[in-house]
Automatic annotation (TrEMBL):
GO MF annotations in UniProt: ATP binding; glutamate-tRNA ligase activity; tRNA binding; zinc ion binding
GO cellular component: cytosol
Complex and partners: Monomer.
Protein name from the UniProt record: Glutamate--tRNA ligase
Record field: transmembrane: none
Residues spanned by motif 'HIGH' region: 9-19
Family: Belongs to the class-I aminoacyl-tRNA synthetase family. Glutamate--tRNA ligase type 1 subfamily.
Residues binding ATP: 244
HAMAP family: Glu_tRNA_synth_type1
Length: 474
C-alpha cells in the first residue's frame, strides 16, 4: 500500500505553530514511507475563511520548506462532488431528509437539558422498517442527516493512542447537508479523504470526536477507513493551551523574530516525538527516523529557550554568505540600506562570521552589528561612564596616533598596532581594549579587537576615537 497523507488546514487565520507541527508529522510519515503528500484547504466555512488566510498558510508552509505532491485542493471547488455523494447516500438509505423546524429542534434540546441529558436529535424523520414517517410539511427546506448505527460501538485503532471507541448510542444523526444544500464539515472531510485516497490521517487530537462520526461515513460509502493518528496539543511554558498570551503562535512570527526554518522544524519535531536522546536533526534524519510509534500521547510544552538554542546552532552551521543574505531584511528594518554588490555581500559575510556566535536570532544579529552600518553609534551609558574617563584620554590619543599610521588596514596590522599602544604606554590590554571598544562600538562587548577594528574601517575608527576623546571631561 502506497502511503498518502494530507494536511488540511482551515483558512481562518495564520498557520498556528501547532498546525505546523501537524503538517510536519504528516510530511515525515509520508516521506519516511516513500509516500506522497496532499495539501487541502478546508474552506467550507465561508464566513470565517479568507483568501488572506489561505495565502498566509501557503507562505508559512513554503517558508518551512514543506512542499506538497498534490494540491492545494479547495473544498469550495468540490461542492458538486459532495452533492453527488449525498445523493448516493440518500439512495442507499444511509441518509435521509429531516424536516424538523428550528423550534422543534430547540424543544428537543430543552427537553434533554431538563432531563440533564446530552442534547440530541430524537430521530423523528429517521426511517426504520415498519415506521410511518410524519407527513412532509410545506415550505421547509429539509436538511440531510446521516443514519448513524444506533447499537454497538464505533471503534478505530489510533496509531498514537491505541484502540479508541465510543458507544453508538452517544452519536446522533449528523446533518451532512444544510437546508440550502451546502455540505457540512465532517462529511466533506470524509469525501475528500476517500477521493484523495488518503491512507493515513494525521491531525490534532481535538478531532478524535469527529473521527467516530467520520468512520461510520467511510463505512456507509463502502470505502476503506484510513489509519488515524491524533497528535496531542502543544502547551505554553506554563502548561496552559498555547495561545497569543505566550508570545508567537503564528509560524511567520517566528520568521519575523529572526528564527531559521531549520531551527523551527527541528524544534517542532521534538515536540511530542523522540528518537533516543538525539536533539539535533537534519531534515533527512527526521525523514529517516520518524515513526508514529514514538509519538507522545500527552501534550508537550513549548520551550522558547530551547528553540533559541537550536536557532543559534543552525545560524552557526549555515553558510555565512547565505546567512548574510537572510540578515539583509533585518538590517533594512533597522534603517540600514543594504546593497547587492559583491563587495557589500563579501563585507556582510565577514560581519556575520565575526558575530554569529554571540547571538541567537537574526534580529539580535542585526542589532548587534548595527554599529558597523551607521555614522553615529549608540553609546551604552554604563560603558561610557566607566570607560570614557580622564585616564582613558591619553590611551585613546595614542590609539589615534598609532592607528592613524597603519598603512594597510588588516587584522594582523591592527593587532600589532594595539599591542604597540600597550607597550608604549606600559599598560595592560584591558586598559586599552575596553575604552577602545567603547569608543568604536558603543559598548564593551564585541568580537576580537583586530576583527572589530578591521570591520569598522580606518576612517570611522579615527572619527569615533576623536568623538570619544571629546566626550571625556577635563
Ligand atoms: N481543518 C481541520 C483543522 O484545521 C483539520 C481537519 C482534518 O485534519 O481532518 O483543524
Amino acid at each position: 500500500m502506497m502511503v498518502k497523507t494530507r494536511f488540511a488546514p482551515s483558512p481562518t487565520g495564520y498557520l498556528h505553530i501547532g498546525g505546523a507541527r501537524t503538517a510536519l508529522f504528516s510530511h515525515l510519515y509520508a516521506l519516511h514511507n516513500k509516500g506522497t503528500t496532499v495539501l487541502r484547504i478546508e474552506d467550507t466555512d465561508l464566513e470565517r475563511s479568507t483568501p488572506e488566510a489561505v495565502a498566509a498558510i501557503i507562505e508559512s508552509l513554503e517558508w518551512l520548506g514543506l512542499h506538497y505532491d498534490e494540491g492545494p485542493y479547495y473544498q469550495t471547488k468540490r461542492f458538486d462532488r459532495y452533492k453527488e455523494v449525498i445523493a448516493e447516500l440518500l439512495e442507499s438509505g444511509h441518509a435521509y431528509y429531516c424536516y424538523c423546524t428550528q423550534e422543534e429542534l430547540a424543544e428537543m434540546r430543552a427537553k434533554a437539558e431538563a432531563k440533564k441529558e446530552k442534547p440530541r436529535y430524537d430521530g423523528t424523520w429517521r426511517p426504520e422498517p415498519g415506521k410511518t414517517l410524519p407527513a412532509i410539511p410545506e415550505g421547509i427546506q429539509p436538511v440531510v442527516r446521516f443514519k448513524q448505527p444506533q447499537v454497538g460501538a464505533t471503534t478505530f485503532v489510533d496509531l498514537v493512542h491505541g484502540n479508541l471507541s465510543v458507544q453508538n448510542s452517544e452519536l446522533d444523526d449528523l446533518i451532512i447537508a444544510r437546508g440550502d444544500g451546502s455540505p457540512t464539515y465532517n462529511f466533506c472531510v470524509v469525501v475528500d479523504d476517500v477521493d484523495m485516497e488518503i491512507t493515513h490521517v494525521i491531525r490534532g487530537d481535538d478531532h478524535i470526536n469527529n473521527t467516530y462520526r467520520q468512520v461510520n461515513i467511510f463505512k456507509a460509502m463502502n470505502k476503506p477507513v484510513p489509519k488515524f493518528a491524533h497528535l496531542a496539543m502543544i502547551l505554553g511554558d506554563d502548561g496552559q493551551k498555547l495561545s497569543k498570551r505566550h508570545g508567537a503562535v503564528g509560524v511567520m512570527e517566528y520568521y519575523h523574530q529572526g528564527y531559521l526554518p531549520e531551527a523551527v522544524l527541528n524544534y517542532l519535531v521534538r515536540l511530542g516525538w523522540s528518537h533516543g536522546d538525539q536533539e539535533i536533526f537534519s531534515f533527512e534524519e527526521m525523514v529517516q527516523y520518524f515513526d508514529l510509534n514514538n509519538v507522545n500521547k500527552s501534550a508537550s510544552a513549548f520551550n522558547t529557550s530551547k528553540l533559541r538554542w537550536l536557532n543559534q546552532h543552525y545560524m552557526i552551521e549555515k553558510n555565512p554568505t547565505e546567512l548574510a543574505m537572510l540578515l539583509k531584511p533585518f538590517l533594512e528594518k533597522l534603517g540600514v540600506q543594504t546593497e547587492t554588490s559583491p563587495e557589500f555581500d563579501n563585507y556582510l559575510t565577514q560581519v556575520v562570521e565575526a558575530h554569529v556566535k554571540r547571538c541567537e536570532t537574526l534580529v539580535e544579529l542585526a542589532e548587534m552589528v548595527l554599529y558597523l552600518f551607521t555614522d553615529t553609534i549608540e553609546m551604552d551609558e554604563a560603558a561610557k561612564a566607566k570607560q570614557l574617563i580622564p585616564v582613558s584620554k591619553p590611551v585613546l590619543e595614542k590609539l589615534v596616533e598609532i592607528l592613524g599610521n597603519v598603512a594597510e588596514w588588516t587584522p594582523a596590522n591592527l593587532d600589532a598596532a594595539v599591542k604597540e599602544v600597550t607597550q608604549v604606554l606600559e599598560v595592560g590590554m584591558g586598559k586599552v581594549g575596553m575604552p577602545l571598544r567603547t569608543a568604536i562600538v558603543g559598548r564593551t562587548n564585541s568580537p576580537n579587537l583586530d576583527e572589530t577594528l578591521f570591520l569598522v574601517g580606518k576612517e570611522r575608527t579615527l572619527d569615533r576615537l576623536g568623538k570619544a576623546i571629546a566626550m571625556i571631561e577635563g
